Amino acid sequence: MLAEVSKNVFLHASQNRVLNKAAKKWGLKFGASQVVAGDTIESAIRKVNQLNQKGLVCTLDHLGEFVSSREEAIEATQYNVRTLEAMGKSGVNCNLSVKMTQLGLDIDPNFCMENMRRILETAKKYNNFVRIDMEDYAHCQITLDILKELRQIYGYDNVGTVIQAYLFRAEQDIKDLKGISLRLVKGAYQESPTVAYQEKKEIDNNYMRIIEEHLLSGSYTAIASHDHNIIEKVKEFAEKHHINRNQFEFQMLYGFRTDMQLSLAKEGYKMRVYVPFGNDWFGYFMRRMAERPQNVAFALKGFFSK
Fold first, then answer.
1. What DSSP character marks residue 157?
2. How far is it, in rounded angstroms, from Cα 169 to Cα 195?
3. Is 271 flagged in the annotation as binding?
4. How much is the pTM?
5. Is 252 exposed, middle or buried (0-12, 13-18, 19+ CB in 10 A)?
6. Which of 107, 147, 188, 194 is the most exposed place for a label (fewest CB within 10 A)?
7. Percent of the chain as helix, strand, coil, to the nearest 5
8. Tens of pLDDT, residues 291-306
9. Is 106 a catalytic residue?
10. Using one digit for the tens of pLDDT, what is the confidence trace for 94-153?
11. Which domains can be identified in the chain, with CATH numbers?
12. Is 288 annotated in some ligand binding site?
């Protein structure tokens, strides 16, 4: 019960605009520097280069939420373009992850589409890939609609998205998105029992179902989990069904379970680290605190060690 209360507190805080605004002034405090790779493109690229040297590949995510003006969305788009250019020029092995609400989705979907196309054109220039992060349930269908349009109407094959296993619709979405590179996650937002599983066992079971479905369809699959039981099950499933390791990768968050990340890379699996950066870190950080009680102790340890 206490853990559930704690989770709700952190999730509520993650959506608080006042706290989010204040956090930009605080800087990367309260342990956030352990899980956020600096506040500039240059600092993020340095971290990615260090991870590459350890045998890990990456995806960069310029943090940002609560965009309410076209000017902010254009600025975020330009920042993502510059990030792709910096990755291309530095030669690091790294993709880009984006949130469409940061690019103006809540302002005007067509405006957001224009911004997405600008980012994808830049990624195409550098032979890179862009992952559209999935946000809360209210943005799920519009995200998939835009992905479909980007791929089928505009012909971008260098873009994929994320499917969240706690949503009832996840299994059907997996079938509809056959052939598209997907990151599969359990889910990190607080959703209604009318649209999402609430129990860990149900979420875990559905997670394995969608992983297996996507792998068996021959589609590229990114398994984003810190759960060693899930990871072992995926390894066994892939071996049993003779699924080539080139068809999937494991993904984990920057700053979490680093020993396991290195171990998977040494075993010959592609291990991608999700590397967030920027000064708009508060919402991301609060959701990480909500996911696992252990993360709170981890953050406090980082804060008091400074």
1. -
2. 8
3. no
4. 0.86
5. buried
6. 194
7. 55, 15, 30
8. 655 554 444 444 333 3
9. no
10. 999 999 999 999 999 999 999 999 999 999 999 999 999 999 999 999 999 999 999 999
11. 37-280 (3.20.20.220)
12. yes
Q: Tell me the residue type at 262.
A: L
Marked catalytic residue, from 61, 133, 204, 280: 133
Tell me whether residue 242 is annotated as binding.
no
Looking at residue 167, what DSSP letter applies? B
Contact 32, 279 (CB under 8 A): no
Helix (H) / strand (E) element for 277: namely strand 271-277
Instruction: Kindly report, residue by residue over 169-178, the tens digit of the pLDDT.
Output: 999 999 999 9
How distant, in Å, are the alpha carbons of 164, 177, 188, 261 from that of 183?
A: 9, 12, 14, 17
Task: Tokens 């704690």: give the residue.
Answer: 6
**Choice among 61, 131, 173, 183 that is catalytic:** 183
Q: For residue 43, which of 277, 285, 258 has the smallest C-alpha distance?
A: 277
What is the residue type of 186?
Answer: K
Active site residue 169: no
Backbone phi and psi for residue 107, each to the nearest 5 degrees, phi listed first: -90, -50
